[in-house]
Every structure is written in structure tokens, then in C-alpha cells.
Write a structure and sequence with these properties.
The chain is α/β, with parallel strands linked by helices and 285 residues long. The protein is 37% helix and 16% strand. The chain has a six-stranded parallel sheet with strand order 1-11-8-7-5-6. Strands 3-2-4 form a three-stranded parallel sheet, sandwiched between helices. Strands 9-10 form a two-stranded antiparallel sheet. Helix 2 links the parallel strand 2 and strand 3. Helix 6 crosses helix 10.
Length: 285
């Protein structure tokens, strides 16, 4: 069979951002996204910069809040509370991971669900699990959009998701189930992962480890979504051994240029969605 066709996440993302920009043009005042960065982790600094730049491209106001790595959990929660009660702020994003000593569950759980643009709050995750709407986590939402826009019919497909994080693996498994896929969620304790992935029509990999999926782990014609980003020397690579896997699969996402741009596009889309939530739920200040 011929080599795999690339899913161009950047091209898809650009089209979505253009649509968001057109919508934001008619919103007065424009939506406001608060981006909270605690500490100076280089990767987190870069990610928040990219998110703020995307806001500028589509006309969303970005409110950038930088807190020192020495900030306490109580101080971070106090900042989240202030943003919850700020009616000029429609959406709140706390960049993860947080410095040691600050509980991510405590901080994320403090964001009111209506402003939880990342979709990490237990209420929003619960709604996704029960197929009741809610704000959907940006990366899993982007993966589903990529599959659909690539013409993939999801109903009845067997899907394997490698990685069970709250940010990606679990919500993605819920979303695929909601699309009538039969889903197996693999993790560090799963025995014989290869036996599972070789049976899957769709394999989504989000484990944070280069070459976690190799060509001998997928069947011919499979669809492979690489959600990982890893620095190897000066190169940015995914979780998939791209060269060996692309020879077997029918569709594959590259790294960079695949899921990453779609995550940013979904963040912009979610910010607009948060802005449309009832104003009475947006704080009292």
C-alpha cells in the first residue's frame, strides 16, 4: 500500500482560527482569556506565549498573569478566585504543570466551570463522560475534529488510546466512546499493549515518550494520532516512531504541525464559548 497521508493540523487550525476571528469581530466587548503562569518553566513560558499570540490573531483579549515559582497554593487559588469574580474575564487558563507543592486538582477545581476554558474541572469532565455537553478539553476536542475533517467515519471503529491523563487520555476516550467507537484505554499497567494497538483501527498516543508506538504495533491501514511532544536534542518529536509507523498506516499526524496547532485553535473556540455562558455565572464584581 502507498505511504500514509498526513493530516495537516496547521491547515485545519488556520481555517478554524479564521472562523473564530470572524465571530469575535461581532462581539462587543471581545472575549477575554486570563492566562495564569506560575514560575518560569521554559516549556510553559513558550506555551503561554503561543496562546497569547493566538488571542491577538483572532481579536481575543489576553490577560497575562505571571506569578513567581515561590507562590503558595493559597496565593494561586486567591488569584483564581479574583478572576472568577472579574466580570471582564470570560475564560481562565492555569498553565500546567504547576510548581511542586501546589496541588493541580485544588487549583483547577477552583475555576468556576463556566470559565474553565481547558475543560479540566470535574463538572466539565463529568459532562463529557456522560455526553451532556460541557466545555471539552482542547487537545481531545482537536483530535476528534481532525478525524472528522479528514473524512473518518468513527462509528463502529475500534480505538486504542495510549495514556490516561485527565488532560488528554481520559477525555479523549470519553469523546471517542460518545462517537460510537469501541475504546480501549491503555496505561502503564496495561499488559501487552501491542496486542491491543494491533487490533485498533485508530491509535491515539499521549504518553510523553518518544517511539512509544512503533511500526510493528499497528495494523495496515490504521489511523494514528500522535499527541506527544518531546525534545530529543534540538528536534521536536512525538510519541510515535514516525518513519516506521507511516509505512503501515493510512492517516497519520506529524509532529510538529499536527495536534499542536489544533489544540490552540480549540482553545480560541472554547474562549468564545465561555463568553457566551450566562453573564450571571461570570462573577459578581
Amino acid at each position: 500500500m502507498p505511504g500514509a497521508k498526513l493530516i495537516d493540523g496547521k491547515k485545519m487550525a488556520d481555517a478554524i482560527l479564521e472562523k473564530v476571528r470572524g465571530e469575535v469581530l461581532h462581539m462587543m466587548p471581545p472575549p477575554c482569556l486570563a492566562i495564569v503562569l506560575v514560575g518560569d518553566d521554559p516549556a510553559s513560558v513558550l506555551y503561554t506565549k503561543k496562546k497569547a499570540e493566538a488571542c491577538g490573531k483572532v481579536g481575543i483579549v489576553s490577560k497575562n498573569i505571571n506569578m513567581p515559582a515561590s507562590a503558595t497554593q493559597e496565593q494561586v487559588i486567591a488569584k483564581v478566585d479574583a478572576l472568577n469574580n472579574d466580570r471582564s474575564v470570560n475564560a481562565i487558563l492555569v498553565q500546567l504543570p504547576l510548581p511542586k507543592g501546589i496541588g493541580e486538582d485544588a487549583v483547577v477545581g477552583r475555576i468556576v466551570p463556566e470559565k474553565d476554558v481547558d475543560g479540566f474541572h470535574p463538572e466539565n469532565l463529568g459532562k463529557v463522560a456522560l455526553n451532556m455537553g460541557g466545555i471539552v478539553s482542547c487537545t481531545p476536542k482537536g483530535v476528534i475534529r481532525m478525524l472528522k475533517e479528514s473524512g473518518v467515519s468513527l462509528a463502529g471503529k475500534r480505538a486504542a488510546v495510549m495514556g490516561r491523563s485527565r488532560m488528554v487520555g481520559k477525555p479523549l476516550a470519553y469523546l471517542l466512546t460518545n462517537e460510537d467507537c469501541t475504546v480501549t484505554l491503555c496505561h502503564s499497567k496495561t499488559k501487552d499493549v501491542s496486542a491491543i494497538t494491533r487490533e485498533a483501527d485508530i491509535v491515539c498516543v499521549a504518553v510523553g515518550k518518544p517511539h512509544a508506538l512503533t511500526g510493528d504495533m499497528v495494523k495496515k491501514g490504521a489511523i494514528v494520532i500522535d499527541i506527544g511532544t518531546n525534545k530529543v536534542g534540538e528536534m521536536l518529536v512525538g510519541d510515535v516512531d514516525f518513519e516506521s509507523v507511516k509505512k503501515k498506516c493510512s492517516l497519520i499526524t506529524p509532529v510538529p504541525g499536527g495536534v499542536g496547532p489544533m489544540t490552540i485553535a480549540m482553545l480560541m473556540e472554547n474562549t468564545v464559548l465561555c463568553c457566551k455562558k450566562p453573564k450571571e455565572a461570570q462573577g459578581n464584581a
